[in-house]
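Materials and Methods. Structural model of S-layer protein C-terminal domain-containing protein. The 627-residue sequence of S-layer protein C-terminal domain-containing protein from Companilactobacillus alimentarius DSM 20249 was retrieved and submitted for structure prediction as follows.
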Amino acid sequence: MKKPTTILLSAIILGGFCYTTLNSTATDVEATKSSETRDMPVPNGQILNFDEKFDLNELGSEAFIPIEAYAETGKFLEVGYIKLNQRNIWDLQEKKKTTVATPTIETESNAGGYLEYEALNVNLNMVYDEKKQTFTLFDKETPVRKITCELTDGSATIHYLFKDTKKEFFTAQQEDAFAYHERGDKFMVSTLKEIDDSPKLIGYFDAYDLDFEGFTQWDPLNDIDGGAKSDEPIIKKFDRKTIDKESNNEFNVYLEKAMPYTINYKVYLDNKPYFSKKITAELNDQIPLQDEPKMPDSSLATLNKDKTAFSTIYEYLPQLGTTIRTGSVLYRKIFEQNFGKVGSASSIDNQPNFLNTGIYGISGEKLEDNQVLVKLENAGRTSTLELYYESNQSDETDDNEVTADVTISSNLGNQVVPNVTGKIGSDISVTVPVISGHVADKKTVTAHVNQDGTITTKEKITYTIQNTAIDKPNNNNSSTNNDADTSSNLPSKYNGLIATMKKNVNLYDIKDGKMVKNKQRQLAALSDWKVDQIITLNGTKYYRVATNEWVKDHDIYRYINQSGVINTKNVSITNLFSAETQLINNRGLANDTAWKYDRIAYLGDNETKHYRVATNEFVKASDVFTK
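The predicted structure was written out as tokens:
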């Protein structure tokens, strides 16, 4: 028996690229759309009907008895023919009863295909009455004129339908579906790929039992070899006692809609959008050649190959996050190695089409008739290719605006004011954060916008406790104000985001003014959460993630959802850190390279500002700069 179908979604991380594959092996069944009929043939020879007189001595060497055959449901199937051979005829002539063999019944179902039955009456005997010159059939001691049959083999009618629209896409007869075999009363459904005359399936997964929940729960860090597997290929169960020509031999298979493959092609000139195109294609469809866009004039601008950026997101594996790669090696892999291999839709200066070369390079697919085929591993994949051109005459001036967070020292710890904007080289006024239950000694501080894109202040703030009987919660919509009223057991409103690190995080409940560990629930490692309240008890800060479920501040880190590009400085290597602020020893960022980040995180006891460049890899804000 061949190996059952297995659907495997695995991630292979190689050289900064991340690919997924869905593979299937052949099944042990064949599906064909057969026009073959299995009606019982009328035999050539003498026919002996019930109650019809005949002389035994006039029989030849063989004869046939027509008998009605019925399924176990009671439905009529066909007229079968019991064969009398020479031995049977001799027995009857000797006035003996003779044992006859029941026929195998072959019939065509009303839905198409065939069904095969064998009689349950396995002890049929025939007796000839010389006076009446007629015969009688007995099943043991009971006279019978029909037989009841059990299904032993046959084809199932499979209707392939789109799950979202319920529209039928294709119908096929799957042979040997009802045969007796080790699977018992069930069979494995053939995929459309295995059926020769099936139409091309576009935009939908084939007949797989896809476990989407299993894909999203797969942990590639601890199970990199196993992958996320569905339990079984599609299996259909049946009760052979209920199958006849009219019913229970048809089955529906619903095909899941596949997320499309998306390619974003973006061109920048002096860090400003110059050209962009979004290309979307369905699974098993093809991406045709694209018309060449107007690119920046090569005499006026130069492509910065070191800033070429490529990122990939997989919708079916969100736990992998965004895979990002930049640099001249990436550029050479996508463009220089493939340049000239891709046909052109409208080439410029007799050069291969730049856009098509990029699509081909990031898809990793072979061209078929100058088109990229969207294969299974690209379903739900979004790839973004970014090219950065710089004007040859452009000079950065001190008038450039930057946006950055400002950290202000205080007696209650560092206070972070997010998204402050100012011109490089200027001094700006920054509003001091408000902390519930406290009064600051100043409302604003003066900060300087530095050449490296940071905004800093040397001023400090002193907060004093507000003299009120009961402090009301402050509706703080900033996710960066990280202090609550330390003089009261009342929580303050807090709208922000937190993330766990490599370990699961304990939850706590407030009971009688104290925090008690929740023994039933924890937050999963490397997960993100929205918080709405903050409270300080016995000097420890807690954030609320659900009704009366709190986490300690040292078990998590705060972050802001913000993306952008950072640049390393002219140093030999820029260190990377984990969320636990541990140095990553086996790799770092090269000098003068650009990297995409997807969040700003505040790590460690001092909540130092970091940029996240990979799932659990951060770089200090002080070690890089933004343009």
